[in-house]
Amino acid sequence: MQHITVSESFKKMTVKAILSICLFIVTYLALMILALIFTFISAYAGIAIIVYKPTFFTLLVGVGLVAMGILILFFLAKFIFKKNIVDRSHLIEITAEQEPKLFAFIQKIVDEVKTDFPKKNYLSSDVNASVFYDSSFLSMFLPIKKNLQIGVGLVNSVSVSEFEAILAHEFGHFSQRSMKVGSYVYNVNQIIYNLLYENDSFESKASSIANVHSYLAFFVAIALRIIKGIQWILQKIYDIVNLSYMSLSREMEFHADEVAANVAGSEPLITSLLRLDLADQSYNAVINYYSEKIGEAIKPSNIYPQHQFVMNFLAKENKLPNENNLPQVDISNFNRYNKTKLVITNQWASHPNTEDRVAALQKLNIGVKNNKPEKAIVLFNNIDVVQEKITDNLFSRIDYTTEIKDEKTEEFIEAYTKDYRANTFDSIFNCYYDNKNPVYFEKDSLESAKNLSFNDLYSDNAIDTVYTSIAVERDIQTITQIKSGDLVIKSFDYDGVKYSPKQCDELIPILETELARLKEEIDINDKAIFQYFLQLAQTQSLETEYLNQYQAYDEIDKSYDEQFEIYAKMMNATAFINYNTPFEVIEQNINTIYELEKSFKEQIGKLLSDERYQSVITDEIRENLNKYLSEVFVYFSRPTYDDNALNIMMMSIQQYQYIIGRKFFESKKELLNFMVKLTKQ
């Protein structure tokens, strides 16, 4: 570790962070001095009034003046008594006696990084690893023991070498003295956050004083007005400190990556970074699967073989190679569907993006000292027991109403695969239709269509064109927001060239021309696709059926846009319900809802009677929608909302969206399945 030096960028961000801390200290001391002076004057005036003329009235005024000063002073000092304790209810502590191999492994990394061994070590269920500690105001001045959290989902997703790199990264945050600055900035952020947002207890105390007498309430109100002004100042400081912290945090990540590369090599950290998104997606897929099984009281005894299956299953679906039972994701796979050339530095991001981290690690190009390709689960004495214990802990928070049924991994695999196939399009289309729709053409427009092979129609180049057009369209929208001022930034990069907001007018026409070219390419390909399958259908005497399938889908597609617009209007019209709103404004907004409901209820009535939609309308949905249609609800009557009426309306909006969305998907899938059928006959 001796040869690792702090980068110039790191030094620059450290200086900015130190300056932001100094700004906070100066501002805070100034506010505290003013508060002390104000409190002294208030207390002196209050006592003087009481002494001068001791009556009940002057007593109340005097106490009110004293309380006003003390409240302001207490507000500024209350963070000292606040301790930020990490919730550990979801964690299970492990010891060296239980897991000697794992602890020896951690000790070796700690020794190499030259930091302290964790005070306590915990296991969690997820795909993550972190070093954490309980912090308070005093932790800025006293040494703190760090704790290590290891996600069992993580060790299920990485090799030993990759796990070594990940832990070295976490410990790397504490391997340099300069990293202490990050801790100071973090604690300053916590102090300001406490003063700005964690005031329930303080406001409760102030309210209890105000409730004693109306005279006291008057002085409490003045104190709260002064505190609002203090918070306004602190909010400005908070933005400055937080931006400094985020900038420094991103540099700290690069530094910790370099530490990890020196311990385990660049490649293990790169491969783990690129796989973890897939691993996390797979873990959440299993969690979501069992979330939908709560009503049936179905759970697994061990979630991790299922997590492993989903990870490898999704990798296979995306044609990713597999080594040692771990999918291998390279940077081209990682960015396959992200074709944007627009780069806007997110100043509020605490981590650099994965692509930048991978590029920095590749530049370091530090070789692997001792490659250990076996899965990290080998570091545990009995991984099955550990996984089962973590699974039990994960599901123990669910209150099942009936007897629990354990689902075997084989049952999960069958059910998950069936559900996946039912909700995705056939892989022969190479993801062409995942984010675009089939296009219907009249037969007489096909004379100019190209004759292309199936492989050409759904080639990687064709897919790239689709996703590039999506990216360009989104980039135009973002740059238009920059131009209008809706998105305020100083500069951005596009295709490696830096632009200012004033140059948006130059760039947008260029991108619009590029988008038109891409859409023309896609249209040519779509026409060739339509003709290709039409010819297949003709050779199999299925032309009429093919055209009927396409036209049925096309009708649903055209209806969907109008249907979704009504849904969007209802969602926008009801958004105010989630916020504190004056009575007059609520009543105006409710009247808008009543107007929109006329066409919305008309659309629901059409769906309920339309034969095409019956396959996606369950008995429960029909019952709720009929109830919504049959009654005239009064959503608000001063001073309260009718929660039951609102719940029925909001559920109807969501169910309406489900019906039109699900029917659109099913219609699209039916057409694509028919096209698959044509290729196999």
Automatic annotation (TrEMBL):
Span of domain Peptidase M48: 147-363
Annotated TM spans: 21-50, 56-81, 215-234
Cofactor(s) recorded in Swiss-Prot or TrEMBL: Zn(2+)
Matches recorded under InterPro entries: HtpX_protease, Peptidase_M48
Keywords: Cell membrane, Hydrolase, Membrane, Metal-binding, Metalloprotease, Protease, Transmembrane, Transmembrane helix, Zinc
Name the UniProt record assigns to this protein: M48 family metallopeptidase
Organism: Arcicella lustrica
